[in-house]
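Re: the request from the purification team.
They wanted to know what the chain is likely to look like in 3D before they choose a buffer screen. I agreed to run a prediction and write the result into the notebook, where they can find it.
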Amino acid sequence: MDFCHDQNGSRFIQQRLEVAGSAEKEAIMEEILTDLPALCIDVFGNYVVQKLLEVGTPNMKADITQKALTGKMKPMSMQMYGCRVVQKALEVLDEELLPGLLKEFHGEVLACVHNQHGNHVMQKCVDILSSKARAAQSAGDIERMGLLQNELQFVVDDILASITPLSCHPYGCRVLQRILEHCLEPQKSAVLDALVGAHKTLLDDQYGNYVIQHVLHYGRESDRQSILEIVVHSGLLNLSRQKFASNVVEKILKYGTPGQRNAIVVAMLEKVRDDTMPDGDPAGTATAILMVRDAYANYVVQTALDVTADGKELQALLHILRANVAQLRNYTFAKHIVTKLGS
């Protein structure tokens, strides 16, 4: 136990466990069994427990589950080091041991999601159960796939009940991103449907924008179209000048259809009045020219040049930029655009 609580001692035991036979593993297990809960929340001891979960025998894993995890999943998940042990357990324990442990999170999902450590456990639940469900689907084991989906459903249901505030939360947005990345279609679609009404709210939120970026990456074409329409109707220039919304506009260009990309470029061609250019054209200045002068919006123009297929829209954008290249050289944020035009 003294070695487990020491940095070098813990490392030595972990290395030893990687090459130890069953008898040696059992000897180590016998030494620490009564103090397993304390080791799980220790800065160095937690790594020994994680290693035992990796390389231990089925009986040892069952002992760790019973002594250190059963009845303690929530408090362990909310502790800095205990949450790492819980995540490792979710990764390596046999499938039949998971339902009993996961049941302890029923009614506690939001408490865990709002916690700086517990949210990582919720992310791991989504990742592991969804990965197992996908593997079962690929193997044609529809029954097992359904069982695994059902094991995760309580997490999805609690997220759905508070989807907008969780999307705007520094930890909640991460769990939503994992759902969009990993869940099978029924659960992912339920989340996408619930997010539709919040697209405008989340688009420029400091955390919600990451959820919207994931919607653009992993969502449906209808979701991308919804977000595109919000951007165009709210004003491409205004949103592209905003730190968080500009990232969303870039993702529309990256993951949208050719038609959706062209719609963004067309909006860049529109002339607008801008008070910062009093000597400009009375009819207004092309949105793209104003964008390339901005700290955030210039990246949107760069992305458009990179991903938009050659066509009349792209050629019109290039024409406007080249016609104003002398002016653009005077602006710090336009230098990358000028370089692209030169190449």
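For the purification team: The radius of gyration is 26 Å.
Please add any questions underneath this entry.
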